[in-house]
Amino acid sequence: MALLHWKFGPNWMEAASAQTVLVVDDRKDVAVTLAEMCRACGFDAEVAEDGVGMLGLLQRHRPSCVIVDVMMPDQDGYEAMKDIARFDPSLPVMLVTGHGDVWLQMGVTLGRAQGLTAVHTATKPVRVHAVRAFLETVASR
């Protein structure tokens, strides 16, 4: 935790403590790892294993942000972003994929077209510094 204090300042963890991240990924091991990274940064985290289950968790937990995988079977990350935009277009989204930057750039374009105001990206395997940077922007809002 000392590293977080140094990097983000003394009030960053306090700002994060009451916030929740919704992690959406069809690979449970990846979702759990991302959720653990969020918790290590002082956020609460909830996990949905598909975009279909995401909407109920959005309504129930009212998260501060969402981390969502691009490639999922029943509802991909692009479709999930449409639901997020309808739910709250100001909700920050981190779009993640292991399929390359083209998919991420397409996601940023589609997210903005849907009205999302904050779309971030990270390539899998997602590194903790990418999650921290994303959560820092969320905590500073």
> Structural class, please?
alpha/beta
Report mean pLDDT, rounded to a whole number.
89
Reading side by side through the largest sheet, how are the strands ordered? 2-1-3-4-5
Proportion of residues in helical segments: 40-55%
User: How would you spell out the order of helices and strands?
Assistant: HHEHEHEHEHEH
Largest sheet: 5 strands, parallel
List the topology elements.
Elements: H1 2-8, H2 12-16, E1 20-24, H3 28-40, E2 44-48, H4 51-61, E3 65-69, H5 77-87, E4 93-97, H6 101-113, E5 119-123, H7 128-139
Parallel strand pairs: 1-2, 1-3, 3-4, 4-5
Helix pairs in contact: 4-5
Concise overview:
The chain has 141 residues and is an alpha/beta fold. It contains 7 helices and 5 strands. The radius of gyration is 14 Å and the shape is globular.
Summarize this structure as a short list of keywords or feature phrases.
alpha/beta; globular; five-stranded parallel beta sheet; disordered N terminus; 51% helix; 141 residues
Describe what you observe in this structure.
This protein has 141 residues and is of the alpha/beta class. Helix content is 51%, strand content 18%. It contains 7 helices and 5 strands, in the order H-H-E-H-E-H-E-H-E-H-E-H. The protein has helices spanning 2-8, 12-16, 28-40, 51-61, 77-87, 101-113, 128-139; strands spanning 20-24, 44-48, 65-69, 93-97, 119-123. It has a 5-stranded parallel sheet, sandwiched between helices. Strand 4, helix 6 (101-113) and strand 5 form a beta-alpha-beta unit. Helix 4 (51-61) runs parallel beside helix 5 (77-87). The chain is globular, with a radius of gyration of 14 Å. The two termini are 21 Å apart. Mean pLDDT is 89; it is low at 1-8.
